[in-house]
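re: that complex we talked abt at group meeting.

here r the seqs, copy pasted straight from the sheet so there may be weird spacing, ignore it
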Amino acid sequence: MAQNTCPVQSTLQYLSERIDSRVLTDPKVRRICDSIRMLVEEISLGEAGDGHMPAIDELMAEFETRRPDDTAVQTREFLNRMLTDHREMFVSHIESRNCPTHDCGVIAPSPCQMACPAGIDVPTYLALIAEGKDAEAIAVIREDNPLPWVCGLVCTRPCEMMCVRGRIDTPISIKFLKAFAAERALSDRRYKNPEPAPPNGKKVCVVGAGPGGLSCAYYLALMGYAVKVIESLPFAGGMLMVGIPRYRLPREVIDREVAMIEDLGVTILFNTRFGTDVTYEQMTAQGTDAFFLAIGAHKAWDMGIKGETDFPRVIEAIAFLKNVALGDRHAPGKRVVIIGGGNVAIDAARTSLRLGAEKVTIAYRRSREQMPADIEEVEQAEEEGIEFAFLTIPTEIRGEGDVITGLACNKAELIAKKGTDRLAPVPILGKDFVIPADAVISAIGQYVDDSGMTAFDKIRWTRRGTIEVNHASMETSMPGVFAAGDAVSGPATVIEAIGGGKRAADAIHRHLNHIPQPRMPKIPVRRHKRPMIEMTASEKMRLTRPSMSMLNVDRRRTTFQQVELGYDEDVVRKEAKRCLRCDVCRRCGKCVEVCRDKMGIDALHLGYLDFDHPVKTDFRLTSEKCITCGACAANCENNAMVIEERDGKRMLKLCGTILNEQDIQHCEACGAKLPSAQYMAFISDKTADVTKKSDQRLLCNNCQRKQSARIHVSTRPVKNK
Amino acid sequence: MEFRRGSRVEVFQASSDEAWEPYMNDFIGAHGVVTDPDTSINDPDDLIEVSLQGKGTHRLPQDCMRVLDDRQGEPS
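got the structure back, here u go
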């Protein structure tokens, strides 16, 4: 092993190669090596805790008791050597969470992957989509998220918030590309489940078939666990099904992806309420080894205003959306007012409109700018004719008998409260008004319904009314009971629940196999490294984020057909090519520094490299000054910046984008390859003080020396004494 | 302090909130972007989702963060 190679990284690579090439034939040896690999990987990523080295030692002791074949003996000897000779380095990685050789940093995931709560390897699947390999892209996504089609339609896309391309122009349309790939892979009948591990005889009970529960069930099933999911609704999906309207997420999309999970052997008991129809004692008696709670947050907060309980047409948004999902197609009223400013409020408003309401108004206490709903959702609601009453504080629901006549409100202004710069809505005295209405829907938030959880008496609840867990393992304070999703975070996002479910599946596996839990949530894993896609700087800069085709507004106001119609194939392939491949370029900025400060050329205008202060980027400007000297490429640790010679050209490429290309020159005397004319001119200028500039013949150094020598010999011959 | 989707933030101190776990001490000094603010009720007590450079995406109490600016990724 070279001195500057990290032993942790070398061990990881060696084990991966041994395991992936299937040379280890003894199942127990394979299992031991797989567990050691997992622990070493966490050490390399700075996620390991105090229990990791003892756990590796225990696994090695178990390895010693096996009578392995030659290959296993080699593996054992290698591991023994690495763990003995370089123990300090392993411990240093754990304690300092730093790799002195930077080898472990080389595998750092891209910002989009880091941003994804499920840790999906975005650059890899975008590269596959760009190559037209949709099924392969879906396989990569499903390594971290079993519901790619669902997320392709409803994800809040934190990945796009962190997309580095957004620092140049606009983020890659990651969400819609995922939806396209899923749809195409299903259409091509190439959307397949991975092969699950053989049954391991252990049973896990998952409470709730929402995104968190489904995700946990999927990954447990892949690991060979028998999974039983308890679901109170008549279908799977949880909030996906009863909280998100069909015009955003068609039922078929959920059904298809749930069916894929069921195909792995996951059993879902529908119309079954935990604690009533099935009890903790019954499940334990059936041999359940662990529980995973993903019960969501389905209870609505009260508004606390007068008249709230006096009229039948004061409806909770979450109950309203659920009833519509279950088949109710009656308009809540003719003039509907929705109270709230989140996505649930927008969903309730747009659903009311589709059911035939004549006028729908959203009343929100703050300004439009502060609305937490997705901007796209707000704009689409406006297009459909939803009205917004901002800075509006509801005070009373008024009516006669059982019938609502209006919602009394105060106009508000935003004022910073004492000791904080956070603006709070404060009623303006005398500015009262009434919004005429015959139905009021409250969408001010939900909380966790803990009924049915009484058997889990040792789990702790936070002061926010959510289940308390250790977020590294999603383990509750009750041994063997894990939880994730909205029940842990409060009402949050689909992708967060999916990520939590995946993390919990891993933690349950560790718990049942006596493997220590990680110290902190795992950093996402890069799944592959796809080849770069070559394109010119001009093309890379010219490509722009495509706009989405939408259903016409009349149909949107009357039906539940999907509103966003998706991208065409050629648009998808081009959009995927816009990706900057941040899985390869780590934006360390060395290339820019070397070019500007060491070479004095300053050809690289890569302002996007700076997270805090991004300035202008234009790949096309590189060719104006670049001399293809290769100093940037020579200093690039990740080979993101490379010099390539092809077809008589010397090219500088950044992650496949050709920043510059110049003709390769040849020595006129011997034909040897020479740098570009620009580079030669640069050197001539730099050495003008010591060497006379010659522009008569293009010669390599050797031929120049020979020529000089000949001149010296002919003009000043050496005299024999 | 008001956090919006897209706000660039810095984790500048440990939080005294019960939701603060020991591993979160690693995040102090990290910069990131708010990916999901208090979505439902604009509650300063809510945990907000933030994607931290090199540290992943986490839900953190608001008192450990301060806003650097409100727009991420726009060339100045």
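couple things i noticed - Residues 72-76 of chain B have pLDDT under 50 and may be disordered. Chain B has one domain: 8-69.
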